[in-house]
């Protein structure tokens, strides 16, 4: 059974690798002989999506489809490269003062918005101040918590004054919820007419049917190679697969390995990309028996994570520790009980005085992602052997979200989004003042201190060390039980070239994509 | 007639109240539907701001009557997601569903009536068994299975997938539109053919046992004419009733088929509205669906009067 699974996994990995190699080769070859050969490639790309954006206003967009579209329409001060390193965006460079309390951004010259107006420092000041204002209800407001003042001394310079050094700031500015808007625009206007500095502009939208982008010729970077990109709404994933096989759709991203498998055919290749998002059993350390660290440790020791991955997700993924950001990735073996250990679990329960066992009420969402209920059932079966009863409450996703937001659960089977910077990823969960700390259900003075240190240090090696300590602290206290990360599957027909999928799911490399 | 119209209005009001209450009873609202778990990060001030924006800060009774009042003035609400009024959205989606419903019903009648007559022509014979098996298949094969199978096989083996091209409205590109309607109509038509076939069979058998058929036969009416005029003509009332009912259901949106074949019909409009918790959109659209149902029922009644003089007399 196990061997068989591994065989399938190996084969799939080989295919993924082959696809990656093929993409790299084809991606490089046209660029080398004729680096100035732009605009001739062109073409129209059709991407199959199950839903169209639920909003076109970047500061409020959290839906995956909305983020993917808006990333191609708007610009941010900083950006991520393919490996999720922070690179310059609308800001050509930035520099922190000696004490780390002032950050000066130098803006790129000659950047224009889609409506032709010029982008400048007053737009940055306007945008950042609006994001900070509660009345805007921007979702990234807390990422600017350390920013006390925003000055625009001249057209190309923006100076941020901070209350404390913030090493996570450059990465936090790279997300689309931090998009730079023109100071002349309002939310109502942008809801129908996006006006950004991105490589594409909105050409046409038919609500719940399709959304078409056209190349922005005035883009500050290398102009996009495609003439148009259509996001075509095909609500059913297997219908997207059919549309790829009949050649109507050339690119699609799937989460479900089963669907991805069916998409693979003569003309369609599928590439796997490890994701930042992670599957976890969230524990609420402020409720009932879970308040005792020994009960939490017992749970963590009684779970074989690979088994959850194999049974619930066909083994498609990797066992993970807390931090999934590539540069800071936690070592999944650095935890109490890296292997399942029922004796150890029993010992922890003894220490907690709960040798008779405990009952944990666990919420599970149905329909939000494919593997949730299977994960929950496997966890329940495994924990039952350690005298721990998971009482599962399977909820429709809306009901799950309501309970999750209210932190109304002992435990929750969850798929949470990850971020390239570990502070952005967990600072809001596990610091006592974090805006998701109530949901995280755990904080400690040690963690508060470590997170503060991580923000203050700008030395990459030092930061790595700090976040390794944070990761260890979270595991040693069994704040949650981290399970595994999964892949996303990019299916592309053979005429699509030059597209690079990213671990955060971003489609920003549409700008380098061509269709023959 | 007046009494019927009053009863219809009462039904519509009942539907409006029921949908309003059901929607509020579903967990979540437009804020959490949009932001998902990120809504946990909202500060109280942000939360208030968003509630005011979506009109969720009003008492329920005010929400209901302001919506109902707006409906009477022709304002069915606004979809923040689509950035269009519900009236505009419905003007686009309702014709799609009506077109689909008409094609499906025509197909269902073309399959169901001949099959029913075939079955009834010699009950308990092999041809009856054939008709019954086809009918049973139509009833028991779920639409989603037939739809996905048809789509997958035709797309991968023959490259035929007009529905992958993005929906074309009848007025814009009639040829592509008709191709896109083909598979969904077949799937729906096949399913509806079953009850029509069974109704036809039962009705024909019952009519045939009547005295006037024997009399007509004795008078030397040719068999073909006897079947078409005397038997089928008299069996039409139950068939029309059944067809009217099915047509009404279809106008409610064949949600599953619209999903699989990417048809932007009214069923998908309601589904998206529910997912996004766009209350006004769902309330207004369901009201329009209920209204269509009522109208189809009235039309069915009118049809009775045309085909059966006895109803006219009563």
TrEMBL record, chain A:
<protein>
    <submittedName>
        <fullName>ABC transporter substrate-binding protein</fullName>
    </submittedName>
</protein>
<dbReference type="GO" id="GO:0015833">
    <property type="term" value="P:peptide transport"/>
</dbReference>
<comment type="similarity">
    <text>Belongs to the bacterial solute-binding protein 5 family.</text>
</comment>
<dbReference type="InterPro" id="IPR039424">
    <property type="entry name" value="SBP_5"/>
</dbReference>
<dbReference type="GO" id="GO:1904680">
    <property type="term" value="F:peptide transmembrane transporter activity"/>
</dbReference>
<keyword id="KW-0813">Transport</keyword>
<feature type="domain" description="Solute-binding protein family 5">
    <location>
        <begin position="85"/>
        <end position="435"/>
    </location>
</feature>
<keyword id="KW-0732">Signal</keyword>
<dbReference type="InterPro" id="IPR000914">
    <property type="entry name" value="SBP_5_dom"/>
</dbReference>
<dbReference type="GO" id="GO:0043190">
    <property type="term" value="C:ATP-binding cassette (ABC) transporter complex"/>
</dbReference>
<dbReference type="Pfam" id="PF00496">
    <property type="entry name" value="SBP_bac_5"/>
</dbReference>
<dbReference type="GO" id="GO:0042597">
    <property type="term" value="C:periplasmic space"/>
</dbReference>
<keyword id="KW-0175">Coiled coil</keyword>
<feature type="coiled-coil region">
    <location>
        <begin position="369"/>
        <end position="396"/>
    </location>
</feature>
<feature type="compositionally biased region" description="Basic and acidic residues">
    <location>
        <begin position="330"/>
        <end position="339"/>
    </location>
</feature>
<feature type="region of interest" description="Disordered">
    <location>
        <begin position="320"/>
        <end position="339"/>
    </location>
</feature>
<dbReference type="InterPro" id="IPR030678">
    <property type="entry name" value="Peptide/Ni-bd"/>
</dbReference>
């Amino acid at each position: 059974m196990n061997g068989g699974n591994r065989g399938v996994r190996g084969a799939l990995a080989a295919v993924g690798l082959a696809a990656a190699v093929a993409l790299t080769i084809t991606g490089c070859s046209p660029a080398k002989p004729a680096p100035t050969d732009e605009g001739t490639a062109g073409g129209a790309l059709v991407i199959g999506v199950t839903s169209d954006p639920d909003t076109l206003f970047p500061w409020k967009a959290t839906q995956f489809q909305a983020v993917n579209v808006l990333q191609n329409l708007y610009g941010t001060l900083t950006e991520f490269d393919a490996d999720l390193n922070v690179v310059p965006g609308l800001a050509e460079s930035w520099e922190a003062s000696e004490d780390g309390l002032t950050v000066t951004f130098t803006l790129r010259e000659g950047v224009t918005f889609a409506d032709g107006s010029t982008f400048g420092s007053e737009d940055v000041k306007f945008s950042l101040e609006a994001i900070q204002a509660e009345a805007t209800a921007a979702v990234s407001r807390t990422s600017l918590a350390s920013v006390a003042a925003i000055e625009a001394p001249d057209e190309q310079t923006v100076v941020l004054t901070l209350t404390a050094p913030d090493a996570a700031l450059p990465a936090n500015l790279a997300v689309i919820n931090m998009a730079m808007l023109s100071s002349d625009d309002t939310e109502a206007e942008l809801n129908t007419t996006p006006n950004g500095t991105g490589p594409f502009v909105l050409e046409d939208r038919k609500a719940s049917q399709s959304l078409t982008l056209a190349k922005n010729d005035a883009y500050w970077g290398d102009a996009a190679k495609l003439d148009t990109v259509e996001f075509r709404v095909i609500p059913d994933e297997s219908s997207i697969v059919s549309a790829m096989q009949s050649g109507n759709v050339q690119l699609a991203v799937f989460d479900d390995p089963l669907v991805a498998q069916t998409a693979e055919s003569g003309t369609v290749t599928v590439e796997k990309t490890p994701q930042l998002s992670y599957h976890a059993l969230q524990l609420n350390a402020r409720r009932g028996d879970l308040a005792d660290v020994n009960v939490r440790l017992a749970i963590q020791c009684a779970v074989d994570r690979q088994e959850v991955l194999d049974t619930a997700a066909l083994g498609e993924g990797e066992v993970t520790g807390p931090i999934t950001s590539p540069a800071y990735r936690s070592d999944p073996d650095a935890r109490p009980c890296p292997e399942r250990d029922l004796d150890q679990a029993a010992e922890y329960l003894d220490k907690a005085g709960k040798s008779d066992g405990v009952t944990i009420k666990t919420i599970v969402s149905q329909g939000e992602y494919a593997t949730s209920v299977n994960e929950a059932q496997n966890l329940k079966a495994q924990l039952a052997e350690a005298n721990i009863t998971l009482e599962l409450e399977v909820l429709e996703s809306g009901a799950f979200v309501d309970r999750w937001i209210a932190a109304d659960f002992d435990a929750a089977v969850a798929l949470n989004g990850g971020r390239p910077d570990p502070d952005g990823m967990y600072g809001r969960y596990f610091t006592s003042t974090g805006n998701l700390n109530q949901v995280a259900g755990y904080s400690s003075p040690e963690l508060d201190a470590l997170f503060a240190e991580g923000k203050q240090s700008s030395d990459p090696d030092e930061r790595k060390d700090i976040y390794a300590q944070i990761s260890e602290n979270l595991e040693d206290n069994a704040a949650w039980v981290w399970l595994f990360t999964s892949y996303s599957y990019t299916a592309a027909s053979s005429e699509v070239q030059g597209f690079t999928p990213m671990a955060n799911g971003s489609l920003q490399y549409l700008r380098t994509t061509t269709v023959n | 007639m007046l009494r019927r119209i009053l009863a219809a209005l009462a039904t519509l009001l009942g539907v409006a109240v029921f949908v309003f209450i059901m929607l509020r009873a579903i967990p979540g609202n437009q804020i959490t539907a949009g932001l998902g778990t990120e809504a946990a990060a909202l500060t109280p001030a942000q939360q208030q701001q968003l509630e005011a924006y979506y009109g969720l800060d009003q008492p329920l009774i005010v929400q209901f009557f302001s919506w109902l009042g707006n409906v009477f003035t022709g304002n069915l609400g606004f979809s923040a997601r689509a950035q269009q009024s519900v009236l505009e959205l419905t003007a686009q989606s309702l014709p799609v569903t009506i077109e689909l419903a008409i094609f499906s019903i025509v197909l269902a009648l073309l399959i169901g009536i001949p099959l029913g007559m075939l079955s009834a022509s010699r009950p308990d014979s092999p041809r009856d068994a054939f008709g019954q098996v086809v009918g049973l298949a139509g009833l028991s094969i779920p639409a989603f299975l037939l739809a996905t199978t048809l789509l997958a096989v035709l797309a991968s083996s023959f490259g035929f997938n007009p529905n992958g091209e993005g929906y074309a409205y009848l007025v814009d590109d009639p040829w592509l539109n008709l191709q896109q309607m083909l598979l969904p109509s077949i799937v729906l038509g096949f399913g509806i053919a079953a009850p029509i076939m069974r109704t036809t069979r039962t009705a024909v058998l019952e009519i045939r046992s009547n005295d006037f058929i024997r009399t007509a036969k004795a008078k030397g009416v040719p068999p073909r004419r006897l079947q078409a005029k005397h038997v089928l003509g008299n069996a039409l009332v139950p068939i029309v009733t059944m067809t009217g009912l099915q047509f009404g259901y279809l106008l409610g949106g064949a949600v599953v088929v619209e999903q699989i074949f990417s048809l932007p019909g009214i069923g998908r409009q309601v589904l998206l509205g529910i997912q996004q918790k766009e209350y006004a959109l769902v309330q207004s659209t369901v009201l329009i669906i209920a209204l269509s149902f009522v109208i189809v029922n009235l039309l069915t009644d009118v049809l009775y009067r045309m085909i059966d003089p006895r109803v006219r007399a009563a």
